[in-house]
Amino acid sequence: MPTLIAVDPPGCGCTECITGQYVPLDRARPQDIAALLNGRLRNHTGAALRVTVVYALSPGGALDDAVPDTVRVDCQGLSWDLEPQHAAPRER
After folding, report:
1. pLDDT tens sequence across 11-69
2. Does the structure show a pLDDT above 70 at 76?
3. N or C, fewer C-beta in 10 Å, the chain?
4. Domain ranges of the chain
5. DSSP labels for 31-64?
6. Cβ–Cβ under 8 Å, residues 23 and 32
């Protein structure tokens, strides 16, 4: 099976989507969206992604101590709930 390298627009049926190199947005799994956010997959969707992160903040804590609690991605009427540790930016 080919290695997934990109996310295409919803409903795409191009050769790459059929062979498994790309995945249409409407068939993308949460782990595909996390890989897209982290730059491991190319974004061919042509659409903006809305990423909502809810942080857990301990009593008396400051924002720099906050830990991501939930991550939700919305795009073109589709939604994915991601594991915060998988959606975190990579170290550079």
Report:
1. 999 999 999 999 999 999 999 999 999 999 999 999 999 999 999 988 998 988 888 99
2. yes
3. C
4. 6-85
5. HHHHHHHTTSSEE-S-SPPEEEEEEE--TT--GG
6. yes
